[in-house]
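Render dTDP-4-dehydrorhamnose reductase in 3D.
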Amino acid sequence: MRELELWGGHECTVNRIGGAFHDQTIRSGHQHRIEDLERFAALGLKALRYPVLWERAAPERPDSFDWRWTDERLGRIRELGMRPIAGLLHHGSGPRYTSLVDQDFAPAFAAYARAAAERYPWVEAWTPVNEPLTTARFSALYGHWYPHVADEHLFWAALLNQIDGTRLAMREIRAVNSAAQLVQTEDLGRTYATRALAHQADFDNARRWMSWDLLCGRVIPGHLMWERLDGFGFGDRLRAIADDPCPPDVLGVNHYLTSDRFLDHRTGDYPPERIGGNEFMAFADVEAVRVALPGPGGLEGALDEAWARYGLPLAVTESHNGCTREEQVRWLREAWDSAERLRGRGVDVRAVTAWALLGTHDWNSLLTRHVGHYEVGAFDVRTAQVRPTALAAELARLGAGIGQAHPATRGPGWWRRDIRMAFRPVFRTVDTPEPRPELRTPQSPDRPLLIVGATGTLGKALARACEWRAIDYRLTGRAELSLDDEDSILRMLDALQPWAVINAAGWVRVDQAEAEAEACMAANAAGAIRLARACRDRDLPCVAFSSDLVFDGAFDRPYLESDAPAPLNVYGASKARAERGILELGGKPLIVRTAAFFSPFDPHNFASAALRTLAGGGEFAAADDLIVSPTYVPDLVAATLDLLIDGDTGLRHLANAGAISWADFARQVAAAAGRDPDLVRGAPAASFGWPARRPARAALDTELGQLMPSLDNAIERYAAMVEQAEFSTESEALADGGMPYDPFLRPGARVS
């Protein structure tokens, strides 16, 4: 058996909502960045799933093609030593002059395939239609995408049109290149259910195979789906397909953490938005990984089942997880390890594909809304320069077959930990081929992340985030590591041998610093530089935190990373000195400027103080002439850890996107938490008698790409957490069989 290959692809869907087409290639910026192909090739990819899409090449007329973009890209892919796997329709309904339910769809699509093959006769691997069953479901059964119908007859028509389109397209392609291969992709998940919904689970589990069953000529009388489709009048079409099948050369298994589903007739245990139903009964439809015990078969189970059913070569053609960085790496590595284990058992798995190399846009709404939601991929396209992440480093490691995984990624993924349970656990009894358990849980790393600052808000928040993200860490206080004691720093670094250090310690009392300048400078500047120097000498990444108070507020715009510090007070001066000293040291420092913390876990912050006062009916006074960018601590921690794992260095601003006065911030928090915002009284900063001068406008923005959610979004989540804390306790939630929500846990992926 030949060596397992690493493939890749960027999210390239062109889907239609009403009269508007949404193009992921444009949204990721790849449309105008051919240099991305060099980034892909540097990862060691052997093949690249790449769009040669009908909607893009022939948008207005079926006989008029614009190949210029594709000519340049496919040629460059070839030059870079990668094999393209050309896709002609990726979750699309075709150009404006056709649709998935058009009776002439298949021959029109095949004519386009012939034109593409004649243009690129050297391309040997093709995916004419990506995920035909999934696309038919979203377009003609659920109505999410064009033609926006919810009719089972039209759903089957859309599926059969795509299958006929694939068969006819491959006939035309092979007329040009007889060696052309069909790499047929489909999202393969399994449905689990309570006994009352066994009928729906059986139907779903038979339907999930239909793309491949049809292409292999298996849907004949006696097939589980024959009678249903024949009843819709499709018997003759099924016979024609079975008489002239087009078996895939490679089955492309796309599998996400959301692919396996669980159906539960006990709807009262689930939120209203999770409730659906069939003609017989209502039921909840949730991710199986969030409720089922034992866990679902997952990717390895899906590959096992596909091999047992077809005996055809397999490839994992999409492997992506929208989550924190280490979880993204763990999911990819689990796919790779699963493939290797299956190969060891004789299963012909050819490749694992790193999908969404450039991330995805708005898949959290199934592309039905253009709201700017972005999930990072191997590269982060939000930044001024496309930024490789830790996922890119892991891909390069897998592609080369050498090196050690990043220490922060060696723990088990959230889907392998207790925190996966979001609903009351349900014991499942459906028999499913299971992955071999003995190698599924990676060993804990022997080099932890060192977090300095055990007593502060930030240190505790970082530790909590590491616990939820299964990142091995050590949180130290002054008794173990003191920033004013170089020997204690060196002893701790030598004893722990950490892979990185985060300095969350230091002086935080802004006004008291005016009277105790020497102590503040010693902690925030001298101590921070001392720790950074020890890290540099050991070639360790080191994170330090700075403040918006390094600026004087003279600008009428938010401050950027390139703006020169000009502090007004001792605290700001201590942070500015630390920034300068750490950057001058060299090494691998990451300095994070941030501002105005608020957190549901810390009662000693401005937002919490405002809510406490307002809850008692009292008036709360706040400055209305100081503009800041409040920072939600869970977001700050998540972004900092992601950047550290990605290997970023230098100076970066991390604050929730927005600029607001302290008074308006208090009013917005009050309104979100159901308190009376009119009880917030705005007052000039001078009236508070603070010893330390504050800059009038210290809002932070970034020229390196915004990684933080909006302030409005952060306040909504903060208020929800505060409300949950008021009306329930963690022990009650756990006793009820659920999992308390935690803002550090951000699993997200495509909903199937």
